[in-house]
Amino acid sequence: MSQSPARPRRSALYLPASNAKALAKARELPVDVVILDLEDSVAPDGKLEARELALAALREGGFGRREVVVRANGLDTPWGADDLAAIAVAGPDAVLVPKVSSAEDVLAYDQALAAAPTQTRLWIMVESCALVPRIDAVAALGTSTRLSGMVLGINDFAKEMRAQLRPGRAPFLPILTATVCAARAHGLVVLDGVCNEFRELDLFTVEAEQGLEFGFDGKTLIHPAQVDPCNAVFSPGAAELAWASAVVAAFDLPENHGKGAIKVDGKMVELLHLEQARRVLAIAQAIA
């Protein structure tokens, strides 16, 4: 049930569903994914109102090409079951769920969304130490459930690990690698975690570039100011597009039909490079 790899998910902005003005503004931002948050950014006494505002926003629509995701409260909270039941009926593009630590958790969330339309996917937060050694087995459920995306939650890892969250994110690099590998092995979308320093856009850009280097599809954001630099980092550049076009054109030549490796601009490229090139061009076309 994995999602189309050609859909851009460069930027995914969390918005507290309790903030109606923020939800209205999201319809005008150049963001790829809008995450209506019922969990971390909403105080306990505002949970029910936030749920109703999120449902109203889904009914109203107007998000255009943006993918709309709702982050629910966990099933282990007083609000989780009712969140999931209501969101399932509303049918957003995806439901993001927190604190997943096992395959059993994914199956429980999948069952809770049984009434949702087929196109409503399940995304999970990767933010629990218990999930790390099981992440491949959990990602494999993408073939039999609604699971189609994973979103990194570095702040929760820092708290649980008692690790220091500093530029470079050194304690968390193995988790970044494991998450991307599991996602790619099973065809899932994978988004990097947030950068807390929303006023320091240079620092944010460095962290976004790190996420790109690791292979993430995009990055989750906490402030609209982060959208433009995030999109810039995760969009194919002119040199990358030129390379991709050259590779596709070269493999399309009659004399290269059926070949597994050819020379392009003096360098050897293989069919795996052709696949990469086609994906780059597809993403660029989707962005345009």
Kindly describe this structure.
- The chain is of the alpha/beta class.
- It has 2 domains: 11-234, TIM Barrel; 238-287, no CATH class.
- 42% of the residues lie in helices and 17% in strands.
- It has an 8-stranded parallel barrel with strand order 1-2-3-4-5-6-7-8, surrounded by 7 helices.
Helicity range of the residues?
40-55%
Going across the biggest sheet, name each strand in turn. 1-2-3-4-5-6-7-8
CATH architecture of the largest domain: Alpha-Beta Barrel
Task: Work out the strand percent.
Answer: 15-25%
Strands, total number: 10
Please tell me the total number of domains: 2
Structural class: alpha/beta
Distance between the termini: 26 Å
**Largest sheet features:** 8 strands, parallel, barrel
State the helix count: 11
Mean pLDDT over the full residue set:
95
* Shape type: globular
Order of helices and strands: EHEHEHEHEHEHHEHEHHEEH
Low-confidence spans: pLDDT under 50, at least 5 residues? Answer: none
What CATH calls the topology of the largest domain is TIM Barrel
CATH superfamily of the largest domain: Phosphoenolpyruvate-binding domains
